[in-house]
Design goal:
33% of the residues lie in helices and 26% in strands. It has 6 helices and 9 strands; from the N terminus they run βααβββααααβββββ. A 5-stranded antiparallel sheet has the order 4-8-7-6-5, covered by helices on one side. It has a 4-stranded mixed sheet with strand order 2-3-1-9, with helices on one face. The radius of gyration is 17 Å and the shape is globular. Helix 1 packs antiparallel against helix 2. The mean pLDDT is 92. The protein has one domain: 4'-phosphopantetheinyl transferase domain (Ribosomal Protein L22, Chain A). The chain is of the alpha+beta class and 217 residues long.
Length: 217
């Protein structure tokens, strides 16, 4: 087994959408055929590169990795092979892997969205206080950063944006995400990487995990 499996690390890959497609399993091909053309390409791209990335970590041929990842469901690996999470925006795919449970999310830093509405409807009073003295453009940027952090946490819990976004509260002093309703307490790693905001969420109990290593295809 690769030495990665003996260390408490988080490996992260950023893959552009214009990268050549990689092979996917026969089961994934069947699922792909049930999708619209745009979603089918996105599905094939993501699962192919997830397999490609994991093959380097696990030292197993990509198509022999027992990845279970139907459309719209969190990806699953056998427990001894660790945990994988992935996310995408319009031009790149983000893949994260660790022996520990993790969640990852990515968003373009120039994304246009209804920041004020999201802030008012889904963020806590403490979070709103942190934004109250910021100008319009800065609010947009900070709300998006926090969204990326929270979506990574939701992927960690294998939840949904609709049900779980408002449950998470971020402590700006400690970089801790807390979900008191469900009893979750996570560390939140964040980086402004080139044109994207990237976040990785993992259990606060794993204090010896190293900072994620980001690789670009």
């Amino acid at each position: 087994m690769n030495l990665y499996l003996n260390k408490k690390i988080i490996a992260v890959w950023v893959v552009p959408f214009n990268a050549c497609l990689k092979p996917i399993s026969s089961e994934e091909i069947k699922w792909k055929k049930e999708l619209s053309s745009n979603r089918a390409i996105q599905y094939e791209h993501s699962r192919g590169y997830v397999r490609e990335a994991l093959s380097h970590i696990l030292e197993i041929p990509a198509l022999k990795i027992p990845l279970k990842s139907p459309p719209g469901s969190p990806p699953e690996l056998p427990a001894e092979m660790g945990n994988v999470s992935f996310s995408h925006c319009r031009d790149v795919l983000l893949i994260g892997w660790s022996l520990q449970n993790i969640g990852v999310d990515i968003g373009r830093s120039d994304r246009i969205f209804e920041a004020k509405k999201i802030l008012d409807e889904f963020y806590s009073n403490n979070e709103k206080k942190s934004f109250k003295d910021l100008n319009y453009n800065k609010v947009n940027s900070e709300v998006l950063k926090l969204w990326v952090r929270k979506e990574a946490a939701i992927k960690w819990q294998k939840g949904s944006i609709f049900n779980d976004l408002s449950k998470w509260n971020f402590n700006f002093d400690t970089n801790i995400l807390e979900n008191k309703k469900d009893g979750y307490n996570l560390k939140s790693f964040f980086i402004n990487y080139e044109d994207w905001y990237i976040s990785v969420a993992y259990s606060n109990n794993n204090s010896d995990i190293l900072k994620p290593i980001i690789c670009k295809y």
